[in-house]
Write a structure and sequence with these properties.
It contains three helices and three strands; from the N terminus they run E-E-H-H-E-H. The chain has 95 residues and is α+β, with helices and mostly antiparallel strands. The chain is flat. Bound molecules: zinc ion (2 copies).
């Protein structure tokens, strides 16, 4: 069973980061060393459902000093549009 940290960002969002992966994941990755597996068009990665983050395998919270990636990108896009006021001039439907 894999173990995760839950990471809390300054924007109050949270996400999981992998702390330790178990042998099940390692065996899945090792399939790339098998010529028959490698010859297949795409090698499915069959993750055990127990390996997903859940109540049982989150070991410790972590606290980030930053907002999450989604918020960082959203703020960058907002700054881009706020810095480009003229972008909207003339698009209000007035004739
Ligand atoms: Zn696992
Ligand atoms: Zn966020």
């Amino acid at each position: 069973m894999c173990l995760y940290h839950r990471i809390f960002y300054t924007c109050n969002h949270s996400n999981y980061t992998l702390a330790y992966n178990c042998y099940h994941v390692l065996f899945q990755l090792q399939r790339i060393n098998n010529p028959w597996e490698r010859s297949r068009f795409d090698i499915p990665f069959e993750l055990n459902p127990n390996c997903n983050p859940s109540q049982r395998n989150v070991i410790a919270p972590r606290y980030s000093e930053h907002p999450c990636d989604v918020c960082v990108q959203r703020d960058q896009e907002r700054m881009f549009f706020e810095g480009a006021n003229c972008f909207f001039v003339g698009t209000g439907g007035r004739t």
